């Protein structure tokens, strides 16, 4: 009888946040990719004029990412990879651009954007 009574109790009246169906990794990468495109490419920043932005957010690997590749060569070797993974959506960067003159700026921008600040440098 107790099992029957327990089954009839009402659900909590606490509202739940609607689920977007997106993983933390995808949500974080969307935020970073939008800021990167806006700040590095749409703004006409000369630092990035020799590169193209290759968006791969719809990755089935569980690691949404974007790449910077040589301008106009979307199949070329990535010069920068920015990706997120895991339940916390941790964002990581790697590639030869990080070892060049603007590497610390790039890393700082990505770190700032992944932390929620979408401002350009």
Automatic annotation (TrEMBL):
Domain of life: Bacteria
Residue ranges of the region described as Disordered: 1-24
Name assigned to this protein: Lipoprotein
Species annotation: Neoaquamicrobium sediminum
């Amino acid at each position: 009888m107790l099992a029957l009574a327990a089954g009839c109790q009402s659900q909590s009246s606490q509202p739940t946040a609607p689920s977007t169906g997106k993983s933390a990794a995808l949500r974080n990468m969307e935020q970073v990719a939008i800021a990167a495109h806006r700040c590095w490419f749409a703004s006409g920043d000369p630092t990035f004029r020799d590169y193209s932005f290759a968006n791969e957010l719809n990755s089935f690997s569980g690691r949404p990412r974007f790449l910077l590749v040589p301008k106009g060569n979307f199949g070329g070797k990535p010069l920068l990879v920015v990706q997120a993974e895991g339940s916390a959506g941790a964002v990581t960067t790697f590639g030869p651009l990080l070892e060049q003159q603007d590497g610390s700026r790039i890393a700082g921008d990505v770190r700032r954007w992944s932390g929620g600040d979408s401002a350009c440098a």
